[in-house]
Every structure is written in structure tokens, then in C-alpha cells.
Amino acid sequence: MSLSSSLLFSAISVTIFLVLFSYRVDSQPVLDSDEQESAYRVLESVNSEVPWRALFPGDLCSSAPHGVVCEFFEEQNDAVEVHITELSFGFVSDYSPNPPCTADSTINPLLYAFKHLRKIFFYKCFTGAQVSVPDFSVYGSSLEEISFVENPSLTGVLGGKLGNSTSLRRLVLTGTNVSGEIPVGLGDLVNLEQITLSRNKFSGEVALNFSKLKQLKLLDLSENGFEGEVPESIGGLTELLKVDLSENQFSGKIPESLKNLKNLEFLDLGYNHFANFGIPLFLAEMPRLREVHLSGNFLGGQIPEIWKSLRGIQGIGLSGTGLVGNIPASMGFFLRNLSFIGLDNNLLEGTVPEEFGSLESVNEMNLENNKLRGKLPFSPKFAAKMGEKLKLQGNPELCVDEGLRSAKIRGSLGNLKLCRHPYGPSQSLFVGGISVQKASHLLMFLGFLFLLP
């Protein structure tokens, strides 16, 4: 092909591209004027100090604030329309610079005009005058996410306001004054993957049947006023990764059905009124647990030998649970990934196991206010790393050796007395389900039997 022919072909190609591009730009659907006006009104109700119309005078789906998102929809007659599908308000970070809210933010009734809305998100928007919980049922089955985070002036009840939002995947109400009971109809929203209703004013029994919520991965009802027993149906949600029911008034026994949650990584039932007659043994049947918090419930009993099955545990909270007896050496032997352990404010006695001095990954250890005694097994290096996160106060019979005392480590070590006896804690290295100390006693006993005539 000659140079002139090549140039002619290139010119024709560019012309065709420009024509097609111009056609696509000219034919691109624009946001309906009524929907655009509704968006302006909602933006102005969230922050009236910003001149939204002047800053964004054109089609909002072509140029809009960060929190306004549009999508294209193909209608039955092959026509393509554009609608607003996400509204996110309240500055979160530089990575998600949503339109900022002001102290007098309100919810404009035109919020209900967006019939294709999939996500609604408000962060620290309602902090002044009271604002009622919106009626989400008007969105039908389009809504996939509802998030209201840190909105203390949001009030009202949730009952009857979710409708049949069968597409809803995330429901987040945290840090509000929403009250009442959880609506029973929530159990019919089968596509839910997250229910976070923490730090609100909810109360009453949780009468919700969770059995249909097979997709649920996160359940957080913490810091409310819920009472009564925890529904056994939670144990059927095998996709759950996190359960947080802490700081409520739940009572009765911890449901044994929780042992079916084989994928669960985080369990917090702390600071309720559970009376379980000991730490649940079924925890050993939950192999993926990374954190378990049961503090503030009167469980009683001794610490069970279940830690061989929970080697991946990183956090254990058993503060103020009425525990008695010794701390098992197996905790220190098996829990090599442990970062936090809280055994304070119990009735534990005996020495601190020698194996606890080898927990290299631990960042905080709280053994305060027990009846522990004897020499601590910690090296100066271990104690220096822990500093004030090694909490030992309230155990008057604990003591430190001269090496720890001379190291002048910060924290509660400096308040412990110096050991006067040459011996320290018993060497109870945990091997194969029995301590070395017990094994030696057994061998001595068998030797004695062998010598008998």
C-alpha cells in the first residue's frame, strides 16, 4: 500500500471513530430533571453551606460529588436510562471524600424519590436536632445496603420500616438512638450478609428466627438492652465469621448450638448475665476461632483443657467469670499465637505456669486480682517487652527474683515483693496431655510397684 493510500485509510478510520464517538456522547442518556432536582434538595438538606447547584450545574450523572453514584438501566423497549443508585454522606477519610454533613443536617423527604437506590450511607450527619428513621420500605426490592454510623440524633423504631427488601445485604445502624425491638420480619430478608445493630437503644427479647439467613457472615448486636435467651437458631448460620452480643442483658446458658459455627473466627458474649456452669467445652469444636471473649459472665468452674484444639487463638477474654483452680500449663504450651489474654478478677490460685514465660507473641496479659502465688516465670526481656501491659496487681503472694527486680521494668512488677525462697514456680512443662511433674510422680510410683516382692 502506497503512503498516500495509507494516509487516506487512516483519515477515514479517524473520521469514522469521531463520528461514532460523537454519536455515543450525544446519545448518552442524562439524568431525569426531577431526579436531578431531588438530588440537589437532598444535598442541600445535608449541607446547606455548599453551593451544590453552582458547583455541579450540569448532568449529575456526568459530574457529581463523590457520594452520588449513577448506573445505566436497560428498559423493556431497549431504551437506556440513567438513575442515581448510591447516596453516601458524611466525610469518612481522604479515600472516600463523601459530601460532608453539618450540625443541622436533616433528611429531606425527596430522599424517597430515588426508586433505583441500592445504597444509602450517612456518617456523623445527624448530631443536632432529632431525625426519625426513614421508611426504607418505599424502595421495594432495590435496596442492598443501609448504613447509619455515628448518628446520635437518629431516633424512632425500626419495626415496619424495612418492608420486603429481599435484596438487602448489609444493615448497619450503629451509634444511634434507634430503640424498640428487632422486627421479626428481618428474618425473612434471606440475602442479608451483615447485621450490625451495635450501640443503639434496642431492647426486649430477640424473637427473630435466624434460620433463613443462610448468607449471614456478621452478626453484631452489642451494647444495647437485649434480654432473655440467645436464639438457638443462630447455630444454624454456618457462614458466620463474627458474632458479637456483648454488653447486653442476655441470660440463661450459652447456646450449645454455637458449636456448629465451624467458620466462626470472632465470638464475643462478654458482659451479659450468662450462667453456664463453666467455660463451654464446645469451644474446642470451633477450630477457626481467633478471638473468644466471655468476660463479665458468671461461668464458674475451672479452666478446661481444651486449648490443644484452639492453637490459632489470638485473644482470650475470661475476666471476672468466677474461675477457680489453677491456670493450666497447656494454655502456655499450645497457644503460641496468643496476643491477648485476660484472666483477671477471678479466684485463680497456684503459680503462673512456666510455659507462660514462652508466649513470645503475647502483647497484653492481665492476671490481676486473683490468688496467684510464687515466683513469676518471666524473663527481664519478656517483662520489658510487655511493660505496663503485664498486669499482676492484686496477687499479694506473687514475687519476683532479683533479676526482674533489678531490671526496674515499668508496670506492676515493681510493686511485687522479692522472692525469699530459692525455688520458683514448679516446672510443669506440658507434654502430650500430662505435665512433666505429674509424669515424674507416675514413674516414681511405677518404680515403687516394680520393687515390691
Automatic annotation (TrEMBL):
It comes from the Eukaryota. It is found in: Membrane. Residues 161-371 form the Disease resistance R13L4/SHOC-2-like LRR domain. InterPro entries: LRR_dom_sf, LRR_R13L4/SHOC2-like, RLP29. GO terms for cellular component: membrane. Residues 1-27 form the signal peptide. Keywords: Glycoprotein, Leucine-rich repeat, Membrane, Repeat, Signal. This is Piriformospora indica-insensitive protein. It comes from Actinidia chinensis var. chinensis (Chinese soft-hair kiwi).
